[in-house]
Amino acid sequence: MNKNKLHTTQCNFIPQLLRPVLFSLLPVSSTVLCKGIMAAPKPDEISHPPMDQLQGLEYCIDSNPSWVETIVLGFQHYILSLGTAVMIPSFLVPLMGGTDDDKVRVVQTLLFVEGINTLLQTLFGTRLPIVMGGSYAFMVPIISIIHDSSLTRIEDPHLRFLNTMRAVQGAVIVASSIQIILGFSQLWAICSRFFSPLGMVPVIALVGFGLFDRGFPVVGHCVEIGVPMLILFVAFSQYLKNFHARQLPILERFALLISTTVIWAYAHLLTASGAYKHRPELTQHNCRTDRANLISSAPWIKIPYPLEWGAPTFDAGHAFGMMAAVLVSLIESTGAYKAASRLASATPPPAHVLSRGIGWQGIGILLNGLFGTLTGSTVSVENVGLLGSTRVGSRRVIQISAGFMIFFSMLGKFGALFASIPFPIFAAVYCVLFGLVASVGLSFLQFTNMNSMRNLFITGVALFLGFSVPEYFREYTSKALHGPTHTRAGWFDDFLNTIFFSSPTVAMMVAVFLDNTLDYKDSAKDRGMPWWAKFRTFNGDSRNEEFYTLPFNLNRFFPPR
To answer: Keyword annotations for this protein (predicted)?
Structure first.
C-alpha cells in the first residue's frame, strides 16, 4: 500500500494532541493530504484590507447615469421621501384640530421645503447625495406645544390649529439658530475632533437600527400588503439583480418603483373588491388606498409661501424644548452624512465640510419655521439606504428628486395621488433600507482593533444603551402619558425627554465619552485614528477636492480648512 495513502486514511484515528508530533516526522505532502490537517492559510485569505471607499457601486458621487435613468432614479427617491412627509402631518395635524384640507397643505409645504433644503445641501452644504426630509426628533416638543394649556382652551378647532402652528413656527425659528451658529462658526468641526471610527460606529449604526419601530411594527398593521412588498423588494433588488434589459440591471436599479407599483395596484384591487368593508377602523386606515383623503382635499395648483399661516408667536419655554430637537437632528445627521459618504463611494467628509453641512441644515430648519412645515429638517435615512440598494450614489440624481418634490408640491392633485400610498408599503422598504444604513455603521469597525477588550466594551455598551434607554423612555411615556422627566418646568422636561428619546444621541454621548476617557492615550491605533486623521482636514486627502469642493468657484470666498 502507498505510504502516503496509508497516512491519509488512518490520520482520523490519531489523537489530536499527538498529531503535531507524529506529522512532523511525515513528509509534507502526506501531512497536507490528511483530513482535518490543512496548510496554514495566508493572511489575505482570512482577512480583508480596510478600504477608504466602498467598492461595487455603479455610479459614485460625481459620476452620472444617462439622463433618462437619472430622471427615473430621481423620481424613485421622491416616492420614497413621501413616507415621512405624509406620516408626520397625518399624526400631528388632527391633534392640533386641523382638517384634511389643513393636512394636505402641510404635506405640500413640507415637500416644497424639503426640495429646497435638498438643493441647498447638495449645492452648498456637504455636497453629498442626500435628501433632506422631516425629522421625528421634533415630535416630542411639538406634542408638548399642542398640549399647552393656553392653546387647548381654544374652542374653535381651526383657530386652535392656526395658533398651534404659529407657536411651533416660532419655536422652530428660534431653535434653528443652534445649528446655524455651530455650523458656520466651525464649532461643530472642533467638536468632531473627539470623534473616531470606533466612537462613530454606534452612532451610525443606530441611525438605522434606532428606527426599528418605523419598520415591521407598521408592516404588521396590514400584513397582506406589507409582507408581499417586503418579499418583492428583496427579490427584485437582490435575487434578480443580474437581470438586464439593454445592458441595464433594471430590476435592481428600479426595484422600489416596480414593487411599489405592483403592491399598490394589489392594495387598490383589495380595496375596490370590498375586502376591508367589515374590518376594524385601524385596519381600514392602514390598508385601504382611499382613506388618506389627500386627493379630494388637495387643490390643483398651490404654491407654498412663508408665513402663510400667519405671524409666528414666540415663547421661551417652547423654544428651549425645540432646541433639544435641533441638537438631536444635528447628531443624527452627522451619522447619516458619514453613511451617505460611504454609500456614495466618497471619502468621509472632513470636519470643515461636516460643519458647513450642519450650518446649511440650520438654514433649512429656519425655512421649515418660516413656511410652517410642522417639523424640522434632517437627513432622510431611507434615501441614504436607497443609494446602496440601487448602487447609484450620484449627486445629480438627488438634485433631480428635489426638483420632483418642488414640482409635485405645487401641483397638488398629482402629488396627493402618490402620497396616498398606504404606509405599510413604505414600512416594508424601511425594513431593508434602515438595516442597510446600520450595516454601513458597523463597517467602520474594519478600521479599528476589535481584538481589544477596550474597544469591545465601548462598542457593546454604547450600542446597548442606545437601544435600551430610548426604549425605556418610550415605554414609560406610553403608560404614564408623560416622559420620565416630569417636573413643573415643562421646557426642562421637553429638553431631556427629547434627548433621551433618540438612539443615536444616547449612543454618541456614551461612545464619545468612553472613547475619550478610557485609556485613550495608548489606544490611538486601536481606535482607528491613524486612518481617520487624514480625513479630518480638507487638504489631508487629495480626493476631498473632487468630492466636496463648492460649485461656481465659491471656494475662493470660502476657503476650505
So the answer is: Membrane, Transmembrane, Transmembrane helix
